[in-house]
Amino acid sequence: MTFPSAARQGRVCFSRGFGLEIEIGRGKKARRAYGFDDIAIVPSRRTRDAEDVDIAWRLGPHLLELPLLASAMDGVVSPDIAIRLGQLGGLAVLNLEGIWTRYEDADKQLERIAGYPKEQATREMQQIYSEPVKPELIAQRIREIKAGGVLAAASLTPQKVRAHYQLALDAGLDVLVIQGTVVSAEHVSTVVEPLNLKEFIASLPVPVIVGGCASYQAALHLMRTGAAGVLVGVGPGAACTTRGVLGVGVPQATAIADAAAARVQHLLETGQYVNVIADGGMRTGGDISKAIACGADAVMVGSPLARAKEAPGHGYHWGMATFHPTLPRGARVKTEQVATLDEIVVGPAKENDGTLNLMGALRTSMATTGYDNIQAFQKAEIMFAPALQTEGKKLQREQAVGMSH
Q: What is the C-alpha separation between 155 and 311, in angstroms, rounded?
């Protein structure tokens, strides 16, 4: 078997347990990794009716109808969005260290952020986010979501979670997300006392999601903390610049598949099933379908939901590290608010580019390939298929319609 493209880059070899490796120099080999555009889902021997497909999943004691989480981004999730997405069957994560807990009149600040010229946006956002988080607003925002009759999920960074989590729990928080660019189960520091995730999670009465991570070992160690779910994704988000600023990241298809393998190992060791949640890098229903076929139980998305007319970002969204005071790792990204949240999540779609009716697309993908639930779909055959995006699509590219839109 030969790999011409790999051979041009260096010597190709197979490493036991790791697959294809490329020698990029005498002292370093690199695994080949794949993103969503590199792969395709292969149909099985049967097809199904989409109405017979069940896309529900379980997070701790909670059964969720849609395997969809909204990212903890201030331009994506407000208390109102959290309520509406919860009513649709998904779960929105509110950023408890963002605009909504720093300002009573959060929308005024969001309008300011949307109004800045591109060259001023990051600097001005750093100033806006220098306002301290207000404990009373943490409780108020959680109560606002709970008043809508849905689950309340919110995120805190590992550095701040001990300071704020109890306020959120007392207000009725149902799911805690401990989130950072990279979160490890073994943070080493000579400066501060690291958060012991295993002890901390064991002390909580609610399910905890932790992340991000992008490798087998990191995912496995996070699963061993007792987390109910692990976020997988370092740098693939539309607003994230981590891969450029830090040079850190793994293409999502490979990252998810590695984390799914860690889930199997953890299940064998403990009998406990931990959800793998693909975080970022998904724009269309096809991307979401591929994420789950690679092994994800659910997906977390930001930019697709920022396109909702109700989204709080006024046509913009940005990541949680965009406003970092010394090393920003995100960009304020403009998007077109083209449809309602309902149309984006459950349809009906008015466009043919895969960005509307995301959950309907997932159901149809599963039905077309013959799978009737999430865990069955995780076993779907995947093919390396870089021609998938271009084969036969010349007219679409020339006219900027369909897949090229």
A: 18
Taking the C-alpha atoms of residue 235 and residue 195, their distance in angstroms, rounded to an integer, is 23
Sequence-ordered strand ranges (E) for 219-283: 229-232, 275-279
With both helix axes pointing from N to C terminus, report the angle between 285-293 and 358-369 in degrees, rounded to the nearest 10: 50
Could you tell me the CA-to-CA distances from 108 to 199, 207, 307, 312, 370 in Å, in that order?
39, 33, 19, 10, 48
Of 137, 134, 114, residue with least CA distance to 124:
114
User: Cβ distance 18 to 31 under 8 Å?
Assistant: yes
- Alpha-carbon distance values, 93 to 64, 77, 104, 209, 259 (Å): 14, 7, 19, 11, 22
Radius of gyration over every alpha carbon of the chain, rounded to an integer in angstroms: 21
Q: What is the 3 state secondary structure string of 312-323?
A: CCCCEECCCCCC
Q: How far apart are CA 36 and CA 251, in angstroms?
A: 8
| Structure confidence by residue, pLDDT tens digits, 348-402 | 999 889 999 999 999 999 999 999 999 999 999 999 988 777 676 666 776 776 6
Q: Which amino acid is at 70?
A: A
The structural domains of the chain, ordered by start, are 4-32 (no CATH), 50-404 (3.20.20.70)
- 217: tokens are 């070992």
DSSP string computed for 30-67: EE----GGGEEEPP-S----GGG-B--EEETTEEESS-
Rounded Cα distance between 260 and 294, Å, is 8
How far apart (Å, rounded) are the C-alpha atoms in residues 303 and 283? 7
Query: Which residue do the tokens 């490979």 mark?
Result: 254
The answer to whether the predicted template modeling score (pTM) of the entire model surpasses 0.70 is yes
The series of mean pLDDT values per 10 residues for the chain, 405 residues long, is 43 51 89 94 94 97 98 96 98 97 97 92 91 97 98 95 96 95 58 80 97 93 96 78 77 96 98 97 96 98 96 89 71 90 96 94 97 97 83 68 61
> Can you tell me the distance from the alpha carbon of 326 to that of 99, in angstroms, rounded to the nearest whole number?
19
In 113-238, beta strands by DSSP E: 153-156, 175-179, 208-213, 229-232
d(CA 291, CA 284): 11
Cis peptide bond upstream of 348, omega within 30: yes
